[in-house]
Amino acid sequence: MAGKAKKVLIIGAYGCGNKGDDAILKAIVSRFSSFEITATSGRADNIGKWLGINTTPLRLNEGINKSVFLSMFPNCIRILFHLIRSNALFFGGGGLMHDMTPYNLPFMFMWHSLAKLFGKNVYYISIGVGPIKTNAGKKLCARRLKRADGLFPRDEHGLNLLKSMGIETARLSCDAVFVQERESGVMPLKFKGIELPAKGYLTVTASQWFEAVNFWERDRLDFSTKKEILINGIKNAIRIYGMPAVFVPTVVHDFLLAKEIEPLFEKGTYYVMPYEGSSLFSMVSAIENSHFLLGMRMHSMIFAARAAVPFVALVYDTKVQSLLEWLNITHLGVTLGDATNEKVARLIETSKQEHGAISNGLNERVSFMSKIVVQQMNDVADEITSIK
User: Fold this and answer.
1) Average pLDDT of the residues in 207-219
2) What dotted CATH number matches 7-173?
3) Where are the alpha helices (DSSP H) in the chain?
4) Residue 154 contacts residue 177 (beta carbons within 8 Å)
5) Per-residue b/e over 107-118, b at no fewer than 16 CB within 10 Å?
6) CA-to-CA distance for 52 and 217, rounded, in angstroms?
7) Residue 191 per-residue DSSP state
C-alpha cells in the first residue's frame, strides 16, 4: 500500500492582488501535485478554490494597519498548526527576501526557525533576493539561510547578493513560472463587449508606483515624468504596429493607473481589461495571444516569453533587468530613469523589425530555463519524498 502523501506548507504573497505571485504558486503546485499542499492566501483572490489546494489566511502586501495587525495572531496560530503537520516549508518565489520594511525578514525567518525547531525541511524556491541594505538584514540572512535545505535564487543578482553575505549553498535558478509552457490556445480576446482577434492587438502592463523600492511610499511620490514616458510609449506602440493596445492589470493597484490614463487615447485604440472578475488564465491568455507587449511587470514578460511574444521592457526593478539578461534580450529594455520618448520608440521599432528573430530566440531560452527549474523542483520533491 502506498504511503501517505507528504505535506508541504508554502508561504508567499498569494491571493493578495498580484497575479504574478499567484502564477508562481500555480507553477509550484503543478510540480508537487502528488503532495498535500497548504498555502498562505490573502483576501484578494480565492486561490485555494481554483488551484484545488488548502489555504490558510495571511495578509501580506497590505502594510501595517489595525485590521492587518489584529488578524496576525489568529492567522499565525493557523499557520503554526499547518507547519507542525507538514514535512517541509517552502518560501515560494516572488520578491520575499528584502529589508525594505523592518518586519519582513524577521517575520519570514521566524517561520524558518520554527520549521527547523520542529525538524522540518526548509526550501526557498525560485526566490527573489534584495534589496538587503541593512547590517541587521544581512546578518539575519547569513545566519538563517545557511541552514536552509534548498536555496534557489531566481537570478544572478540574487545569487551574488547571497554570496556577498557568505552564503555559498545557493544554486542559481529561474522564476518558477518558467516550469509551465504556454497555457492557452490561439483565441480572440473578449471582455465587456470587446472582441479582438488573436495577434491583432498589443498588450501593456505597468506598475502604478513606477519603482519597486517605492511600494511603501507610493502615495507621496511624484511619478508624472515616468508616467508620461509610459503614455507616449503606448501611443508609439499603437502607431508603429498599427494595432490597438490593451492594458492588462496583473496587479490590482495597476487597474487604477490604466483607467487614469484612458482619456488620453483615441477611442478604439486603447482598452483596459478589468482586474475584478478576470482570472489568471484570462490575463495570461490575453498576453499570449497578443502580437507585442510593452511591459513593466516581470511576470507579464514571462507570460509573453513562454508564448514567444516579443516585448519591450520599461525596467522599474532589478528583477526585470535580470529577466532580460536570462532571456538574452537586454537590448530590448530601458530603465525608466534613463528612458526618453525617443529611446522607447526606437526599441519598439526594433522589436517590429526583429519580430521573428526575437520570437525564435525566446523559444530557445524559455526551453533552457524551464529545464533548470524543473530539475531543481524534482530534486526537492525527491528529498521530501525520502523523509521518513
Assistant:
1) 70
2) 3.40.50.2000
3) 19-31, 47-51, 66-85, 104-117, 135-145, 156-164, 224-241, 254-261, 280-288, 298-306, 318-326, 341-353, 355-385
4) no
5) ebbebbebbbee
6) 36
7) E
Q: For residue 347, give Cα distances in angstroms to 155, 292, 312, 338.
A: 24, 12, 7, 13
Distances in Å between the Cα of 194 and the Cα atoms of 5, 191, 201, 256, 287 are 45, 5, 12, 20, 15
Query: Element (H or E) spanning 190, and its range?
Result: strand 189-191
- pLDDT tens column, 29-67: 999 999 999 999 998 888 999 999 999 999 887 667 788
Q: Decide whether 7-173 matches 189-367 in CATH topology.
A: yes
Q: Which CATH number applies to 189-367: 1.10.10.10, 3.90.45.10, 3.40.50.2000, 3.90.226.10?
A: 3.40.50.2000
- Evaluated on CA atoms 221, 44, 320, 312, the torsion sign reads negative
Structure confidence by residue, pLDDT tens digits, 148-206: 999 999 999 999 999 999 999 999 999 999 999 999 999 999 999 999 999 999 999 99
Q: Is the overall model pTM greater than 0.85, yes or no? A: yes
Q: Which residues contact 332 (CB under 8 A, 6 or more apart)?
A: 310, 311, 312, 313, 324, 347, 350, 351, 358
DSSP 62: S
- From the list 85, 79, 170, 180, the residue with the least C-alpha distance to 125 is 170
Distance CA 251, CA 256 (A): 10
Cell numbers standing for residue 268: 478604439
**131: preceding bond cis by omega (within 30 degrees):** yes
Q: 39: burial class by Cβ within 10 Å (0-12, 13-18, 19+)?
A: buried
- What 3-state DSSP class applies to 263? helix
- Residue carrying C-alpha cell 552564503: 167
Domain ranges (residues) in the chain: 7-173, 189-367
